[in-house]
Design brief:
Elements (H helix, E strand, L loop, with lengths): L1 H4 L6 E10 L3 E10 L5 E9 L4 H17 L8 E5 L2 H8 L4 H8 L7 E2 L13 E5 L2
Parallel strand pairs: 1-4, 4-6, 5-6
Antiparallel strand pairs: 1-2, 2-3
Helix pairs in contact: 2-4
Length: about 130
């Protein structure tokens, strides 16, 4: 399904995840980016000694958005893949201004949330967020 909907050669695919020990401490986040060229990059980010799962998920998306902001051009299509429904809902409800600002700084082809969560449906920008199980 992923390859059919977001073919690797046409999309920058950004996978993010975050978690914390016992859901409240020693948080960490991971980002894996597949570029349409076939190149990839992976990063692990510490998110703090006192950090919740939610905060680690947010930090993963912020870090990923910052990482790709200088690597996309107006023709790039970007899809973020995450398992953090609560974070996607918070972005959709304008509860995460730092992430919202970072996403606004990305210049690419289109912008939308998948799973019926829309993000900035304006102009021709397209950043798609996919909830994965």
């Amino acid at each position: 399904m992923l390859d059919e909907r977001y073919p690797q050669e046409a999309w920058m695919r950004v996978f993010t995840d975050g978690s914390a020990t016992d859901a409240v401490k020693r948080g960490g986040a991971g980002v894996y980016i597949q570029h349409p060229s076939g190149e990839w990059q992976a990063e692990a980010i510490p998110t703090g000694l006192h950090c919740t799962n939610y905060r680690a998920e947010v930090e993963a998306l912020i870090h990923a958005a910052n990482t790709i902001s200088s690597k996309v051009n107006p023709d790039t299509q970007v899809v973020f893949l995450t398992d953090a429904l609560s974070v996607l809902q918070a972005v959709n409800n304008n509860k995460l201004p730092q992430l919202t600002t970072t996403l606004h700084n990305i210049t690419c082809l289109k912008t939308v949330f998948d799973k019926r969560l829309e993000l900035y449906p304006r102009n021709t920008r397209y950043i798609s967020f996919i909830l994965i199980d």
